[in-house]
Specification:
Mean pLDDT: 85
Low-confidence stretches: none
Helix content: 55-70%
CATH architecture: 3-Layer(aba) Sandwich
CATH class: Alpha Beta
Oligomer: single chain
Shape: globular
CATH superfamily: Metalloproteases ("zincins"), catalytic domain
Distance between the termini: 17 Å
Largest sheet: 4 strands, mixed
Amino acid sequence: MRILSTNLTEKRPEIEEAIKKVSQAFDDDMEISLVLTDEHRIQEINAQYRKKNKSTDVLSFPELNEIFICPSIIKKQAKILKTPFKTELTRVIVHGILHLLGFDHVKKDQAAEMEKEEDKILKKISEK
């Protein structure tokens, strides 16, 4: 899997590291566009495409192989969860990729399956 960072205009080592780790954890041969955005823009996208007028950490668009992430929301989540930013960023990228691969968490049984797969991949990443 190759993740194409379409809008990284400055060096963000923690993001580049997370992307590299996540890429290595997946065996699928696909390219993904990863877009970093701010809270206002991700709220607009969420409202337009999901009819949810609120900011979120990640949005995935399988038909485009595109993931939008909001680092400022991820940073807030990391603080709440008392976890490093890189750890939460990696989890969010994995979560977004799983959505691209068809996983969902709308129904309870699907949520459990997605969480199990997410945990398996994050464990694989942490072992490297």
